[in-house]
Design goal:
The protein has 3 domains: 3-308, SH3 type barrels (Roll); 314-424 and 433-446, SH3 type barrels (Roll); 466-717 and 890-924, Rossmann fold (3-Layer(aba) Sandwich), CATH 3.40.50.150. The chain is built from 17 helices and 39 strands. Helix 9 (587-598) packs parallel to helix 10 and helix 14 (856-863) runs parallel beside helix 15 (875-883). 19% of the residues lie in helices and 24% in strands. By secondary structure, it is of the alpha+beta class. It has a 17-stranded mixed β-sheet that branches. It is found in: Nucleus. Its main location: nucleus. GO terms for molecular function: chromatin binding; DNA (cytosine-5-)-methyltransferase activity; DNA binding. Belongs to the class I-like SAM-binding methyltransferase superfamily. C5-methyltransferase family.
């Protein structure tokens, strides 16, 4: 490096004073001074103290669990304790405290927020060799940050000081700068990425300056980690960083290393080691680091801040700061009920107070319309967004706040808020007359924060405008009945769909009325892929798959039957077998081959829960025995995709069915990896994600929406009754020896047996197009009906005599087994399978109150599919298509999260373009 880039601010590193000790920055630049940690015997001389310190050091284990035990995860927050002075005052104060700090380049300073807390550790086994009179020069950049006034805890006392940020340094001809990596002299060796450099200059001139490097620890992958597969690849440890004394760094060995990926799409050069991802094994995530100035470009500090940002709420100037949000008087908030499966309470903020370090809030409760007892109204439409104001004031700890709710004064909620589950309306209040509650109109609308409401409306309008302008191209694979396409018709421009079954392809052709650019490819993906590669994927060839670079999002659910826990044949595969026992399981690798060829910006892969715990032994996975979920993530990471995996239950997003599926989201380098959306509805049967099927593995489960009580949500869970109560009633005629259940009035009954002429096309029910039994009763029914006046497929497939016997006999017995029992009217649908026959593998397939199984229309409602979606084939084919599908609401929530985290921020920054939008996106994301 040329001397012009090195400042004249040269320091001497001598073996004297505290500079020879290993010191690490703690909160607000507190230091753990090693001579005061354990209160050493004052009779010991300096050399004896050093010897004792070295003996006291602990070795750092290479396992993630031991590392997590050794490193305390403390809160890292943007500094709030710095003196509140003007820039001019800061400059003057800095000059007074560090008069010899004279940067050679005078450019416009940029003010950055700082960390307030760091991890403090003493377990690196540092060698005792010293550096005597070695010269170190700071690297001078084109711009600099103003020295920052702060305090620094030393020997149990806070000392006033100035923190000076550095651009790096040169030592004995070796340059150390941001994104370099060093192997520290520890046992075993520890690798660390250099994130930032800084000096602490004390107001007290008797205290030596202290020089530090803040580093993010690196690791090599293991067989059980989700990361891996590329030689000499290192991974950043999630939430594990330290500020290390500069001498410890220069005693280590600088690595031949580079960071790749990121917004610039940096590709690997000729270095020995490289790093692209943070490995977050407890949340089944591999992602690129998120670097922000306020955290000195340390992803670990940002992660710790995210983990602890709710730990210290504070109030100032009539604002309650909690997490990263500001709350104002008269705003509406969601409150965690602390009951598993219970809906959030909704409160109107009236006041807050601080008592013994705890902040409590006072709210006026608002209850959902259905929660308020009414004697005069028992039927009719009831919206889940309709609230009633109560006259009670209740207090809760601020930690119970989950987020903000937005309450409008009338049911005319802006149309652009329909996709926002946190929007409600309230125009009435509840009044008690001693024995009952009466509902009366509010005399005036509830007060709200006009600024926050305006911000919400503007955001929702921007989101709606973005969706309309940015219908980026998408392609679906293993499409079935179009479960991935249906929720995205208004969000993406669907170009391609694929399935091997002719009936499914016929169903997909029916979607071309809504997705006009859709091309349906029938056949095995492996065959289509070979054909496309050989033909070069010409744009005018309808048989070939899409051209590389032409698709923003690629989705698909490879065949799941080979993974399903219901399929008892999915045994562990011997190590000498190349492919899995069920060949359907290997279709996922053809999908990954298509990812490699097509290079979409976003990938979504869906499969059954067992996808993450099947055992396989495939050549592509060098480690040998593994599971498909982990193996898929490794292959995506090898292609440069950040990805995360989670178990998603559709009922948590408003589908009336408990359907647990594994989803993997992957994004190309340089893009933000979207989070899985927080649950919008309660789920009494919520299940955590556990990335293992080995009971001996110590792996912590995690839930989507970690901070709330598991199973809670904004809206109550949707039940079978709420889903299908508007559909006409009917049942089967009983077989000989059984009688019908007496009903008032009696409902129509039909022969449930197979018709000899119709065969498999036998349809049992009142007809193929009949009127609904009532008007829509709730938001779900209204959304699924659309503008339809009649339901087209309210019929079942035929029943065998054995199935009829179960319906009219065994299902009426006390406590029948799951395959023989009726569904619960106030519960959700059990997971739909490809067959609706009672007595099979499915649970609760019999209607709760009518002697029959569920109709095709009811099974579609269980999936969240709209009534207008016509399934091709016989009723048996239609049952199979619903059993193989993905649920509407959970997929739509994931799509909206992709828009919110990737597309919308770019679109706003790009100036809200409306023409050639995807082309502009590609130009900025090559």
């Amino acid at each position: 490096m040329s001397s012009s880039n090195i400042s004249q601010d040269v320091i001497e590193l001598e073996d004297s004073g505290s500079d020879s000790d290993f010191e690490i920055v703690e909160s607000d630049f507190q230091i753990i001074d090693r001579e005061n940690v354990s209160n050493p015997d004052p009779r010991l001389n300096n050399q004896q103290r050093k010897t004792r310190k070295v003996e006291h050091y602990e070795e750092i284990s290479d396992s993630d669990e031991d590392i997590r035990s050794d490193f305390r995860e403390l809160s890292v927050q943007p500094s709030t304790r710095h003196d509140s002075v003007s820039d001019k005052g800061k400059r003057k104060a800095a000059d007074q405290s560090a008069s010899h700090y004279t940067p050679s380049t005078q450019s416009s300073p940029t003010k950055r927020s700082r960390h307030a807390k760091y991890s403090s550790q003493s377990n690196l086994n540092i060698t005792t060799e010293t550096v005597t009179n070695s010269r170190l020069s700071w690297i001078q950049g084109e711009s600099f940050d103003l020295p920052e006034k702060t305090t620094f805890e030393l020997h149990g006392k806070e000392e006033k000081c100035v923190k000076i940020s550095r651009n790096g340094f040169e030592y004995n001809g070796m340059t150390y700068k941001r994104d370099d990596a060093v192997m520290l002299s520890a046992k075993p060796p520890q690798h660390v990425l250099l994130c930032s450099f800084f000096t602490i200059k004390f107001d007290n001139s008797d205290i030596h300056d202290r020089h530090y490097v803040h580093g993010h620890f690196l690791k090599f992958p293991t067989i059980k980690s989700v990361s891996g597969n590329r030689d000499d690849e290192l991974f950043l440890r999630h939430g594990q960083c330290q500020s290390i004394h500069l001498k410890v760094v220069i005693k280590g060995r600088k690595l031949d290393f580079e960071m790749i990926g990121g917004k610039g799409g940096r590709r690997r050069g000729d270095t020995k080691y490289f790093c692209q991802f943070v490995d977050q094994p407890l949340h089944s995530t591999i992602r690129e680091p998120i670097l922000e100035d306020r955290f000195n470009n340390c992803d670990s500090c940002r992660s710790r801040h995210e983990k602890h940002k709710y730990d210290k709420p504070h109030t100032a100037n009539n604002i309650l700061h909690f997490g990263d949000e500001d709350f104002h008087i008269n705003e509406f908030v969601f409150i965690d009920p602390k009951i598993k499966g219970g809906p959030y309470m909704i409160g109107h903020l009236q006041d807050w107070s601080k008592n013994e370090g705890q902040v409590d809030i006072k709210v006026r409760r608002l209850k959902r319309y259905r929660e308020v007892k009414r004697s005069d109204v028992t039927t009719g439409f009831m919206s889940e967004r309709h609230l009633i104001a109560m006259d009670t004031i209740e207090s809760y700890p601020v930690s119970h706040i989950i987020g903000k709710a937005y309450v409008y004064p009338s049911e005319d909620i802006p149309k652009n808020s329909e996709n926002s589950p946190n929007s409600f309306w309230c125009s009435e209040r509840s009044v008690s007359n001693g024995t009952s509650l009466n509902i009366v109109p509010l005399q005036k609308p509830l007060k709200t924060c006009s600024e926050c409401m305006h911000t919400k409306k503007r955001y929702q309008q921007d989101l709606q405008d973005c969706i309309q302008a940015c219908k980026f191209p998408a392609a679906d694979y293993f499409s079935g009945a179009g479960g991935f396409i249906l929720p995205g018709i208004e969000i993406f421009d669907w170009k391609s769909a694929n399935d091997i079954e002719e009936t499914a392809c016929s169903t997909l052709h029916g979607l071309k009325h809504f997705a006009r650019n859709l091309i349906v490819h029938q056949g095995k993906l492996s065959d289509l892929l070979k054909y496309t590669i050989n033909k070069g994927s010409p744009t005018n060839n309808p048989i070939a798959l899409p051209v590389p670079g032409s698709i923003f999002m690629m989705s698909g659910g490879p065949p799941c039957q080979g993974h399903s826990r219901i399929n008892h044949a999915n045994n562990i595969v011997p190590d000498d077998v190349f492919k899995s026992k069920d060949p359907r399981n290997d279709e996922v690798y053809y999908m990954l081959s298509e990812v490699s060829r097509l290079q979409p910006y976003v990938v979504i892969i869906e499969n059954v829960a067992a996808f993450k715990d099947d055992k396989v032994s495939v050549g592509q996975l060098k480690e040998g025995e593994d599971n498909y979920g982990r193996g898929t993530m490794k292959e995506l990471a090898k292609m440069g995709y950040s990805c995360r995996l989670s178990l998603v239950d559709s009922r948590s997003y408003g589908t009336p069915q408990n359907r647990q599926r594994i989803f993997i989201i992957g994004v190309k380098s340089g893009l933000v990896l979207p989070h899985f959306p927080d649950p919008s509805h309660t789920n009494p049967r919520v299940t955590a994600t556990i990335f293992s099927n080995n009971k001996d593995d110590v792996i912590k489960p995690f839930y989507i929406g970690q901070r709330n009580t598991p199973g809670t949500g904004i809206h109550p869970a949707r039940t079978i009754y709420a889903a299908i109560s508007d559909l006409p009633s009917f049942e089967y005629l009983p077989p000989p020896g059984h009688s019908r259940t007496p009903r008032r009035p009696q409902i129509p009954a039909f022969n449930g047996k197979r018709d000899s002429l119709a065969g498999n096309n036998t349809r049992i029910g009142p007809g193929t197009s009949i009127s609904y039994a009532s008007e829509a009763q709730n938001d779900f029914q209204r959304a699924k009906r659309g503008n339809l006046r009649k339901v087209k497929d309210h019929y079942t497939s035929y029943c065998t005599e054995g199935a009829l016997s179960i319906i009219f006999d065994k299902s009426r017995q006390p406590n029948p087994p799951g395959c023989n029992r009726r569904a619960g009217i106030d519960e959700g649908f059990n997971t739909l399978l490809t067959s609706s026959t009672p007595g099979g593998k499915g649970t609760g397939v019999i209607h709760p109150s009518q002697d029959r199984k569920f109709t095709v229309a009811e099974r579609k409602r269980a999936m969240g599919w709209p009534d207008w979606h016509v399934l091709a084939g016989t009723p048996l084919d239609q049952d199979r298509q619903t059993g193989n599908g993905v649920c509407f609401e959970s997929v739509q929530a994931i799509y909206l999260e992709i828009v919110k985290e990737i597309i919308l921020p770019w679109w706003l920054k790009a100036g809200k373009p409306s023409q050639n939008v995807f082309q502009k996106f590609k130009e900025e994301h090559p």
